[in-house]
Structures are given as C-alpha cells and as structure tokens.
C-alpha cells in the first residue's frame, strides 16, 4: 500500500499549492454515476479502495474513508489503517465528521462537478458553524498529481433498436416535452448517463459494465434537444438515428451552454445533477426548477417490448449459469480452482451464448471468508483457492442487447455444516416471502424489506444491505427510483411507490465475518394482481430468473408447506423453461437439481 501512501502525501502537497486545508474525494463522476469510467476513478487511485460506493476526506494531519456496511471488511483489506481512519455511514456523514475535525478559518475544497447542490449546502452549513469555509475548486487537485490519468473514452456510441426499446426516441422526447408543459418549464437538463441513453435510444461503451456514452443533454418544450457529446463518438448512422430535431454539440461546450437560459425555467434534478450545473444556470439568469429528471420514472416502468427482451435475456443467461454451476459443483471439490478461475469460467459460459456484450458488473466470485464481503471484488492479490468445507458465492450478471441480468447463487464445496444450512434456509425463507408478497398499489419498498429479514431476525441475525434494487433494460444493473430497503440500511428507506412494470432484485443474505457469505438473488417484475373481494388495486411479483437454488443447503424442516410448495413450483418452472435449451448432459443435471423436495 506504499504507493497509496505516496499519493496521499502528494495530494497534501498539492492542497498546499492550492491554498486548501482539506479536500473531499467522492466516488462518482460529473454525471453522479455509481459506476464510472477509468478517468474518474479518483478514489480508487488515491486510496486503493475498489468498492462501488464511498468517499474520502484528506486533511493536513489526518484522512478518513467513508463506506457503508457492505464494505466494512473490504475497506480494511484494501485501504491502510496506518494512513486512513475508517468511518461508517450513514451513522456518520462526511459533513458531520468534517465539522468535528476542522479548525476555525479552515478552507475545505470540493469539485463542484462531483457533488450535488444538496451536499454542498449541507457541508457548507456544517463547516460554517465551526468557522470554516467550503471552497469550490473546479481544478481538481487529484487530477494535478495523477500524471497518467486515462482520458475519457472516445469509443463511438450506437443506436439502440426501436423494436427492443419499445418506443422511438422522438416519442420519448414528445413525452418529456408534455411533462415540461405540465411543469410550466422551458427545458430540462439530462445529466444522468442512463437517462440520456434511454431518452435518445443510444448506447455506448464508455463505462465498464454499463452500456452508456459520456454525454449531456437538454430537452426543450418543443420536443427538440441539444446533445453534448464528443464529435469523434458520432458515426453517420448515429447522426441519422438522432435526426434533425437533435442539435449536436461538443461535450465540452455543455457548461457554457447552461449560461444561455436567462429568464427561462429550466429543470435540473437535485439528486442527479451536480452543483456546477445549478451554479451555471443561476449565473446565466435561468429560473431553476429543482425536481427529478422525468426520465427516471419512465425508464423504470418497463414497456412490453422491454419485458419481453428481459425474459429472453434471462432464459439465455440461465442456460449459461446452469452450465457453470454443474462445472463448479464438480471442479471445486477436486481442487485447483480459485476465485479468479471460477469468474473466468462463468464469463466463458456466458460468452458461449454468442450474445454477451459485457458483464453487468464485476463478478463477485467469493469463497469462504470473502463471501462475507457483500461487494467483494477479486484481484490477483486477493484471489483465494476454493477449498472443501467452504461456501462459494457467485454474484454476477450479463449485458445482452435485449436485457440486463443479475443473479446470485451459493454452492457448498463438500458437505455444508448444520449452521450453514440453517442460515441458508432462513435466507431462502426471506426470499420466498418477498417473491410471494401481495401489496396495495402505492406501497413503497421500505414496507416490504422486513418480509425478507424476519426469518433472520427470529434467530437474532441480519444483513447490512438493502433487499432489492431496480434493474435497467440493457442499461444500469442498479437503477432507481425503486428499491426494497429499510431506513437504517445503506441508501436509506425508499419513498418511491412500487409500480407495475418495475423490475427489482430480490436478494436477502447472511454474512458471517471470517467464515462465509450467503445471498440468494433473483430478479422480479411487479405486476397487477386480481384478488377476489379486494377494495383497492393490488400488486405482486413475478420471478424472472430461472436457475436452481442449491438443494444441499436447504433444511426442509425449517420450511412451511407453503414455502416448500413455492420452491418446488419454482424448480419445476426452471426445468420447464430452461431444460429444452440444454444438451442431454446438462438437462439431466438440471432435472436432479429441480426434483421435488419434501
């Protein structure tokens, strides 16, 4: 970790040159993305932390890294405690920690292109109470010392077929224009990469595992739009696809363009647009309307074409997973396999479909104690052999042109212990509780979260992450606004009502630090439910993922008759849907895995 200590020292020297007493380093980009391109991996470059959520603060005499419960173990493995203090969020926020540490007169810098205005206001107030100042510093000091920082991707973007999107881009812009009229607004800024991809029916390869292109957009009340993207990324086919109603500009022209809306009412998303966008609109005399980007909800509610595409992607992906699970069941006990070799084999199985475009995230290939790190990412340095007596957890997904997948399964290597089977079965009970839930239209995900936790709570156990996240249509594997989570877990309790057409994950888990991890994840679709005598519209879930759940880890005596019925019906459907796509050898294996459990 000495290289990161050297980088920390270099940053402190740079802060002195910029007359700053401290600096805040988030893990995001100018689009507030969860997954970012290599050029924006500032937190990983500085600290060595490779998780997908976190931030850091560097002061002259101390430094802290902030992560949630998903990364409690991982951050300690990857970031030196000799140089960094580990701070848990949401128990302590960056602003609160800063307020306790700074001296009167301190100048704490931040990059206005990497923080929301809400965060800026909160941090500014916290520092001001201590006599300190929050200073916008567009010249990012990390960029000044990161001498071999990669350039943003110049890869060409591509048009996304209308038959898979279910709607053409002109129709989508018309809907946005109608929404602007309802808000009495003249334009809306789109800065989230997946919102731009959805609204213009374009995709790209600028961010690992997420098929988006680096761009900004402004959509107007007349349904025309301005798209800001590097010219070298635009092919003739894409220009034709976008049409004359979309004016094209260099991406670097976006900031100046925001100054041209004097007297206009312009919508910007307070959660998804960075502070610099609000600052530029204000400086140009625009009347900023701070409400959510209208694409967020439209994108989350899948149309029939998107659902059909997702179902096709799931069926294809299931075949790949089944081929992998049969292989790992035989190969792992024989020895010689590692976390990296297993991840490579799974990718090979997906690539054999001939339709894999990318992974939907870096595969979590975790054996034994690494399974207890919910978002573990295997590296050459961390790679462990898969050994007898362990549980092997594999959380992975594929990006196919017709859909995005995400699935977690656990495989015992040898004979599992009674404790392992107990914990696995409790997680399964929670998974079934969510899968079979019926709830009124308008219910929020926070209301359902405890369904998944109750079997664990009854044994005094829990897990430190949400139960479900939204999933895009050949887009982000983590998509809002829908979530299943409680207020005291990372990200807080969701307030967005669940609506028919939304896709979520169903992924309760259990993690024994230093021992093993368990998570069972399927994707589920919200659908209307007709219930005799109901006095209000009701919703339920339809499971979209069809891969067997490991029977050797199940203690049937802990399952109720209704739970056993669900499990056996699920496995029967797995066999019926996926079996015909497999060769005889894998179909025979699948038949045994899907046999009824009593």
Itemize the secondary structure elements and their pairings:
Layout: H1 2-17, E1 22-26, H2 42-47, E2 55-59, E3 63-67, H3 72-78, E4 85-88, H4 94-101, E5 107-110, H5 117-128, E6 133-136, H6 141-145, E7 158-159, H7 162-165, H8 169-182, E8 187-190, H9 193-200, E9 202-203, E10 216-220, E11 225-228, H10 236-242, E12 246-249, H11 254-257, E13 265-268, H12 275-283, E14 287-290, H13 295-300, H14 304-334, H15 339-351, E15 356-359, E16 364-367, E17 391-396, E18 398-400, E19 403-404, E20 407-412, H16 418-435, E21 438-440, H17 445-457, E22 468-470, E23 479-484, E24 503-506, E25 509-512, E26 516-519, E27 522-529, E28 538-543, H18 561-578, H19 584-593
Parallel strand pairs: 1-5, 3-4, 5-6, 8-13, 11-12, 13-14
Antiparallel strand pairs: 1-2, 2-3, 7-9, 8-10, 10-11, 15-18, 16-17, 17-20, 18-19, 21-28, 22-23, 24-27, 25-26, 27-28
How would you explain this protein's 3D organization?
The chain is of the alpha+beta class. The chain contains 19 helices and 28 strands. Strands 4-3-2-1-5-6 form a 6-stranded mixed beta sheet. Strands 12-11-10-8-13-14 form a 6-stranded mixed beta sheet, sandwiched between helices. It is globular and about 70 Å long. The mean pLDDT is 96.
């Amino acid at each position: 970790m000495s290289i990161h200590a050297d980088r920390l020292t270099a940053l402190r020297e740079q802060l002195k040159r910029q007359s700053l007493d401290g600096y805040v380093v988030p893990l995001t980009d100018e689009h507030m993305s969860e997954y970012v391109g290599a050029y924006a991996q500032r937190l990983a470059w500085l600290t060595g932390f490779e998780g997908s959520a976190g931030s850091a603060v560097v002061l002259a005499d101390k430094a802290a890294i902030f992560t949630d419960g998903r990364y409690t173990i991982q951050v300690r493995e990857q970031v030196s405690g000799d140089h960094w203090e580990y701070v848990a969020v949401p128990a302590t926020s960056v602003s609160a920690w800063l307020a306790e540490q700074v001296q009167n007169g301190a100048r704490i810098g931040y990059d206005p292109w990497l923080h929301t205005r809400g965060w800026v206001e909160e941090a500014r107030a916290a520092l001001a109470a201590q006599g300190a100042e929050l200073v916008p510093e567009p010249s990012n000091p990390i960029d000044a010392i990161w001498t071999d920082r990669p350039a943003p991707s110049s890869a060409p973007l591509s048009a996304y077929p209308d038959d898979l999107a279910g709607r053409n881009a002109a129709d989508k812009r018309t809907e946005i224009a109608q929404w602007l009229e309802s808000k009495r607004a003249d334009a809306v800024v789109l800065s989230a990469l997946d919102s731009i991809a959805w609204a213009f029916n374009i995709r790209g390869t600028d961010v690992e595992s997420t098929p988006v292109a680096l761009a900004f957009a402004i959509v107007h009340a007349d349904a025309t739009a301005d798209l800001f993207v590097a010219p070298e990324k635009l092919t003739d086919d894409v220009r034709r696809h976008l049409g004359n109603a979309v004016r094209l500009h260099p991406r670097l022209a976006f900031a100046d363009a925001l100054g041209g809306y004097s007297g206009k009412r312009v919508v910007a998303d307070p959660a998804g647009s960075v502070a610099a966008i609000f600052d530029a609109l204000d400086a140009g005399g625009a009347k900023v309307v701070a409400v959510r980007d209208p694409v967020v909800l439209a994108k989350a509610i899948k149309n029939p074409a998107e659902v059909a595409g997702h179902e096709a992607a799931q069926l294809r992906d299931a075949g790949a997973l089944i081929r992998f699970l049969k292989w790992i069941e035989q190969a792992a006990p024989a020895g010689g396999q590692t976390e990296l070799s297993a991840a490579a084999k799974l990718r090979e199985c997906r690539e054999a479909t001939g339709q894999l475009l990318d992974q939907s995230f870096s595969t979590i290939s975790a054996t034994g104690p690494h399974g207890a790190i919910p978002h573990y990412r295997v590296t050459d340095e961390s790679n462990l052999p898969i050994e007898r007596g362990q549980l092997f957890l594999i959380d992975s997904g594929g990006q196919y042109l017709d859909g995005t997948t995400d699935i977690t399964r656990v495989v015992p290597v040898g004979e599992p212990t009674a404790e392992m089977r107990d914990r696995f079965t409790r997680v399964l009970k929670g998974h079934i509780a969510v899968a079979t839930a019926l709830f009124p239209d308008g219910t929020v995900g926070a209301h359902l979260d405890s369904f998944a936790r109750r079997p664990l709570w009854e044994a005094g156990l829990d897990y430190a992450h949400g139960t479900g996240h939204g999933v895009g249509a050949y887009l982000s594997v983590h998509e809002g606004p829908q979530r299943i989570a409680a207020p005291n877990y990372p990200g807080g309790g969701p307030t967005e009502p669940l609506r028919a057409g939304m896709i979520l994950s169903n992924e309760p888990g259990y993690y024994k630090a230093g021992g093993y991890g368990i998570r069972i994840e399927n994707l589920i679709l919200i659908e209307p439910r007709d219930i005799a005598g109901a006095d209000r519209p009701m919703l339920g879930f339809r499971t979209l993922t069809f891969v067997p759940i490991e029977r050797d880890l199940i203690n049937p005596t802990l399952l109720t008759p209704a739970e056993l019925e669900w499990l056996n019906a699920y496995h029967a459907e797995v066999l019926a849907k996926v079996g015909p796509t497999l060769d005889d050898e894998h179909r025979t294996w699948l038949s045994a895995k899907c046999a009824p459990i009593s």
